[in-house]
Amino acid sequence: MGDGLNIKEQFDIAVIGCGPAGLSAAINGTIRKKKVGIFGTDFCSPKLHHAPHIDNYLGLHNMTGEELRKRFLDHVKAMGLGIIENKITGVYPEEGGFMLQSRDTFYKASAVILATGVSAVKPINQELDYLGRGVSYCATCDGPLYKGKKVIVLAYNREGLEEANFLAEIASEVLLVSQIKEKEAQGITLDEKIKVIQGKPVGITGDMWATGVALEGQNLTADGVFIIRDSVLPDQLVPGLNVSNTGIVVDRSGATNIPGVFAAGDCTGAPYQLSKATGEGQVAALSAVKYLDELKNKAGDTKKELAAI
């Protein structure tokens, strides 16, 4: 899969998410001498930031969430780590590890730790049914398929507006349904080909292929639909990932059903507690390190066997 792609960097462990679980995983992976990449937003852990008072974190009582959040980030910085502010939209297995996609940029990792937190994403009606059949989460990836055609963009963040501008260079017409506040859109000038539609999306319409979007009070038709949000559902982020109605399914080591993919923190389900998140982050990191070391030892044994033939 890597041939001809823009490979930005390669890691031993890629951590997706920069909340307490993700930062804990990154620190522990780094201590074990692994090259770790942390993928997150420009503001890590808003949930912790908004906590007015924390009294149940061992040894660091009587603190605000923001004070503790800053300590976490200071710790990460002291370890020589930084946050890569590129949203990962897909994690795909390949020989020797995984390919991580962020729009038109790709990263490689030998193991992946998911620490995406509790997802606030609630798919609209039939969104998942039409995913890959006229519905896409990445304009850069799938936009060329709609050259000269009409598309709808459901924008839930600034990136959605940027993606609409990108699609305006390709498509014949772009209908933009924005769900973000006006102040969040400041500084972005929309292409003149973009038509802004007011309304709340409630579902995807179509037959075998998505043909439009149902809003409250009206229906829009198009050849394709792009939905741009801050986060992607875990099982859409990692195809084939086992997810229950409570979160990503893991064992006590943090391992998922996909070898080399681990998960930690709120994304694995309740209880949604700070200590649980940081603890699971450490466990997932140690498990990922063990997984990588076993792979390395296995490869070494194979070489010895070949040399002996």
Give your account of this protein's structure.
The chain is an alpha/beta fold and 309 residues long. The chain folds into two domains: 7-120 and 232-305, FAD/NAD(P)-binding domain; 135-228, 3-Layer(bba) Sandwich (FAD/NAD(P)-binding domain), CATH 3.50.50. It contains seven helices and 17 strands. It has helices spanning 20-31, 46-49, 65-78, 139-142, 158-168, 234-237, 274-308, and strands at residues 7-16, 36-39, 83-84, 90-94, 97-102, 105-114, 135-136, 150-155, 173-178, 194-196, 201-206, 210-215, 218-221, 224-228, 243-244, 247-248, 261-263. The strands form four sheets. Strands 1, 2, 3, 4, 5, 6 and 17 form a seven-stranded mixed sheet that branches. A five-stranded parallel sheet has the order 7-14-8-9-10, with helices on one face. The chain has a three-stranded antiparallel sheet with strand order 11-12-13, with no helix packed on it. Helix 1 (20-31) runs parallel beside helix 3 (65-78) and helix 1 (20-31) packs parallel to helix 7 (274-308). It is globular, with a radius of gyration of 21 Å.
